[in-house]
Amino acid sequence: MKLITYDYRGVARVGVYVGDKIAHIARLSGILGDPVNPATMVELIENWDELGPKVRAHVAEAEKNTGELAPVLMDPAEVSFMAPVPNPGRNVLCMGLNYTDHVNEGLKAKDVKTTKVEYDAPMFFTKAPSTLIGHGEGIPRHNCSEKYDYEAEISVIIGKRGINIPADKVYDHIFGYCCGNDISARDIQRKHNQIFKGKTLDRSCPLGPFIVPREDYGDPMNKTLKSWVNGEIRQDSTTANMIYDIPAMLSSLSEGFTLVPGDIFLTGTPSGVGYAREVPSFLVPGDVVEVEVEGLGRLTNPVVEA
Fold first, then answer.
1. What is the DSSP secondary structure assignment for residue 34, as one 8-state letter?
2. What's the pLDDT at 210?
3. Counting beta carbons within 10 angstroms of the beta carbon of residue 112, is it exposed (0 to 12), middle (13 to 18) or buried (19 or more)?
4. Which residues pair with 229 in a beta bridge?
5. How does residue 224 score in pLDDT terms, banded at 50, 70 and 90?
6. What is the pLDDT of residues 27-58, one digit of tens each?
7. Alpha-carbon torsion 201, 106, 92, 266, what sign?
8. For residues 24 and 118, what is the distance between their CA atoms, to the nearest angstrom?
9. Which pLDDT value is given to residue 111?
């Protein structure tokens, strides 16, 4: 199953894929005589135990009768995608330095002389909700930065509230997964000597195109992860290369901190980012960035003038 949030005449709607088409969940379920009308993706997530089986049944029924339901099925090219969770209510939660090859390429780029990197605990930071944009939306290159960079990541969407979650119970609290692109202003990071400012410029966190619920996705810890800029592959790795796996990260993050439905968690990026290339390569208006995580589609965004 693939769930989206899209814009319809200025109103956010929650949709679902029916085959290769998209349907508004409320409209589809109304036609099928068993109304399901979540106002937001977070509302759907919060009530998934009740609403999920209904949505699943409606999709199965619709896939048998696509001809009959054609008037309510839209081509993805006709839809204005939003971030699947466009208004999470609080900051996007993020993991830094979670792939050894990315850590090492960063050290090499900074010409740091070291033979060992210690990883004593996960490193967390956040991005403001105003960073979120959807598949196909433009990433504005703000004038305050000349060193925009891409970071392909698998993103986790929290489904159930929890605090002090044991690692072996983390998956019980996950709703699903999607692609993420943690756009980073490297010069601002260096200037301010911290992570937040360079990671939280407006509209600098593409997310999507859709969420795949956990029960439909399987093990997230052995999935390919890739990015391209203007068709040239830049990152090509697997989530199996993470330093901390998803259960370890979220268990640590939840220590004394309550995770709530709709929380977004970005899990870190592998090597291949722009600033660490032999000749550093930063994003400029006109570039197109693509992120693909196995089973989660391809998230595509152009870079535009702010």
1. S
2. 98
3. exposed
4. 232, 289
5. very high
6. 999 999 899 999 999 999 999 999 999 999 99
7. positive
8. 48
9. 44
Cα separation of 301 and 280, whole Å? 20
DSSP label at residue 281: -
CB 185 within 8 Å of CB 198: yes
Q: Which two tokens stand for residue 137?
A: 């939306």
DSSP state of 283: B
CB atoms within 10 A of CB 192: 12
Q: Cβ contacts of residue 287 below 8 Å, gap of 6+?
A: 229, 230, 302, 303
Sheet holding 298-305: strands in order across?
Answer: 139-141, 298-305, 288-293, 224-229, 232-238
**How deeply is 43 buried, as exposed, middle or buried, from its count of CB atoms within 10 A (0-12, 13-18, 19+)?**
middle
**Residue 112's pLDDT is what?**
42
Q: Is residue 269 classed as helix, strand or coil in its secondary structure?
A: coil
Please, what is the Cα angle at 155 between 149 and 156, to 5 degrees? Answer: 155
For the chain, the straight-line distance linking the first and the last C-alpha, in angstroms and rounded, comes to: 35
CA distance 17 to 5: 11
* pLDDT of res. 106: 59
Q: For 186, phi and psi rounded to 5 degrees?
A: -65, -40
Residue type, 68: E
**Contact at 8 Å (CB) between 255 and 112?**
no
DSSP secondary structure code for residue 84 in this structure: S
CA separation for the pair 219, 37 (Å, rounded):
30
Q: Provide DSSP, 164-180.
A: S--GGGGGGGEEEEEEE
- Rg (Cα) of the chain, in Å, rounded? 19
Q: How far is CA 181 from the centre of its chain?
A: 7
